[in-house]
Structure formats: structure tokens, C-alpha cells
Amino acid sequence: MLTVALLLLFGLLFLAAEVVFIPGTTVVGFAGFVLLAVGVWLGYRDLGTPAGHYTLAGAGALAGVVLYLGLRPKNLARAALHAVSAGPMHDARRPDVPAGTVGRTLSALRPAGTVLFGEERREAVTRGEFVDAGRAVRVLGIEQNRIVVEGA
């Protein structure tokens, strides 16, 4: 009887931990479900059919209460992000280094490396050619969020 009670208790605790404290992991919730199922099965096997029915009904009711309390909108709102960033954002879809801009390589481009445009260090790539460090490069364009340059 103690084994059945402990299995049910730990199953409910794991289920509550999954729903309330660490939602989305599913491992802890699955372990809790397995513990509950084994506890109910042992209840039927060791305690008999009537006690097994009570075990099943009690475990189901308590699991339902845990799920109901854990999945209420008030509790789910604790896990949601409510803060809004009012600071400036860099939109990677807009080219901030227009085509034709001239910069100087800080590292060798083989074919990728670091280029200085004014005061900004940016990663850039060539179309395959190698450019030594300290050389001037010109921006050809931006392709798939990469700055493509050539030796100037």
C-alpha cells in the first residue's frame, strides 16, 4: 500500500512540476504520467479491483486538479513575456551599408573576414577572391544578410 501511495504522490508531484514550474520539457510530465500509471496498476494488482477503482478515480481527479490549476490563464501569464523594448532595434533586413561604400579590411578576407566601415566593424564576404588585411574594399551589395565586398 505504501508503494502505491508513494508512486501516486511522486507521479502527481512530477506532473505538477511539469505544468507549473518547468512547462514544455515533457520529460518530467511523461515520468509523472508513468508513475501514476504504475501506481494505479499496482493498486489493482495488490489491493484488488474495488481499491484499484478508488486509486484510479483519485489519481485521475487529482491529476485533473493539478492540470486545471496549472493551466489557468493567470498561471500561464507568469511564463509569458510582457516587457516591451522601447530602445532602438537593428533591422537586419535593411541594408545599413549601402552598395558602393568603401571600407578597410581589418582581417584578411578568405573569403570572409572583418571590415571597418567608418567607425563600425562588420563581417563581410567576397565572391571568392582573397583580400589581404589593411586593403580598401567596396560594397557590392547585401545578399542574405551578408555584406558582399570586392577589392577596391
Structure in words:
Helix content is 45%, strand content 20%. It has two domains: 2-77; 102-151, Beta Barrel (OB fold (Dihydrolipoamide Acetyltransferase, E2P)). Strand 2 and strand 3 (120-125) form a beta hairpin. It has 152 residues and is of the alpha+beta class. Helix 1 (2-21) runs antiparallel to helix 2, helix 1 (2-21) packs parallel to helix 3 and helix 2 packs antiparallel against helix 3. It has four helices and five strands, in the order H-H-H-H-E-E-E-E-E.
Short description:
The protein is α+β, with helices and mostly antiparallel strands.
pLDDT under 50 segments (min length 5)?
Answer: none
Overall number of domains: 2
Proportion of residues in extended strands:
15-25%
> What is Rg?
30 Å
User: What is the arithmetic mean of pLDDT?
Assistant: 86
Task: Describe the secondary-structure layout.
Elements (H helix, E strand, L loop, with lengths): L1 H20 L5 H21 L1 H22 L2 H5 L24 E4 L6 E6 L2 E6 L10 E8 L2 E6 L1
Parallel strand pairs: 3-5
Antiparallel strand pairs: 1-2, 1-4, 2-3, 4-5
Helix pairs in contact: 1-2, 1-3, 2-3
